[in-house]
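Below is how a single chain appears once it has passed through the pipeline. First comes the sequence as given, then the structure the pipeline wrote out for it. We keep one example in the README because the format questions we get most often are answered faster by looking than by reading.
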Amino acid sequence: MEKQCNRCGHVMHLYLRKLVYMNHTQIEHVPMYWCCYCGHHELVEQIKEELKQCLQRLHTEKGTKAISFAEHSIFTRMMLKTCAQKPCFTVDEWLDLYLLAKSLGDKQWLRQVLVSLREVARSKCE
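Resulting structure:
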């Protein structure tokens, strides 16, 4: 997934980043866009509300710890699954990815999801 950088106009790439919350909690696997040209970071719009809710829960808990944002976000779980060599999604999960790619306007990702969805549909019919 890619988008145009609001600061310099170059392409921003999606990656999973570790955030540190209030100097004592590490949150792994937070989806962010990053511009390698100017260094600008930006949260993925679709996870902002989930991250906000996660931070509110963490604020009430005490102690140092590390968590994975994938425990709180379906989007992040699906990204982690996609990073595996052979993603094994259900048809519903592929359709969710299709809707996400379509809402983001990412035509390349949309094509990849459609190819995978067709493969899953073919394997179910055989």
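The beta strands are 2-4, 11-21, 25-35, 41-43, 65-68.

See the next section for the split statistics.
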